[in-house]
Amino acid sequence: MVFVTQATEAILEYCSHPVTHPLLEKYIDCIYSLSSREGGSYYCVPNGKCGLSFVLNGQFTYPGPGGEMVQVPRYAVFGMIKEPLRVYVSAGFSEVAIVFKPHGLQYFTGRPVGDLLRWDGEAPTDSVRLEKELNALREELLAAAHFPARCSRLENFLLQCFCNRRGDSRVDAAMARINAANGATTVKRLGEQLRVTPRTLHTLFTRNVGLSPKECIQITRFYKSLCHRPAAPFAGKTLTEYAYCLGYCDQSHFTNDFKRFAGRSPHRYFACSALTNDFYRYRRWLTQHYEK
């Protein structure tokens, strides 16, 4: 799959592939490849997922908290962002990445997602061994003849890493309820259904998912608004009606959440058909469309 920017005709090539092994389907969303001949930039927005990226060629950078450019290492955990993030890729860039379902990464690392995302630089005890394994895997990915071969190698690696770690059933149940309701629920309601306090639920989520339960609910509902707005049964509705369909109590709450996660109002987003289509298909936005 290829998408082209109308402004500069810069090309980003994207391809995704579902995992094929039944054991992995429960924890992995997909494996994707992204490459660019000319280089360019795009925006990512929150989707409640994290992944493991391997940069095979070129550079991949983004602005840090102080405005300085941060270069992504050859392999890195990514995701769980809470606001739009502009990413820059160099000419000749290529990447392959594994996208995990919420709290799926911990079943392959043996460490809760929250611990990985809050890592303060103190290396885990097996970091040297893990670094050697990831370096070797990256070399194998580089040597692979095509994307399907890379997907196969990544699946084998994941199966080797699977540690059969028993997750917290309360988190599994809470995530299932959030997804079933498409985010149209509350932390209080989840706590009552699972018979835990909101404080306990917050601790469970930040440790095992990397986000608070409230953030998971908000991002799930936001993501639904992006994916389903162009299609029935929401087509033709006013913004207020659409907000009610998503479970918001009023349009104001919907607009505030949308601006927070998308960086623009829903009116601006829905007015750009190219932007809507790009995000629906690729979960990312080209800068030329995003900044119109």
Descriptive report:
The protein is an alpha+beta fold and 292 residues long. It has 2 domains: 160 residues, Sandwich (Jelly Rolls), CATH 2.60.120.10; 60 residues, no CATH class. Strand 1 and strand 2 form a beta hairpin. Helix 4 packs antiparallel against helix 5. It is globular. The chain starts with a strand and ends with a helix.
Strand tally is 11
Distance between the first and last residues' Cα = 24 Å
Task: Compute the CA-based radius of gyration.
Answer: 19 Å
Average pLDDT score: 82
As laid out across the biggest beta sheet, the strand order is 1-2-3-10-5-8
List keywords for this structure.
alpha+beta; globular; five-stranded antiparallel sheet; disordered N terminus; six-stranded antiparallel sheet; Jelly Rolls; about 290 residues; about 20% strand; about 45% helix
Helix and strand layout, with pairings?
Layout: E1 2-4, E2 11-17, H1 22-25, E3 28-36, E4 40-44, E5 50-57, E6 60-63, E7 69-71, E8 75-79, E9 85-89, E10 93-100, H2 106-109, H3 113-117, H4 127-143, H5 147-161, H6 169-180, H7 187-194, H8 198-208, H9 213-228, H10 239-245, H11 251-262, H12 266-271, H13 273-282, E11 285-286, H14 287-290
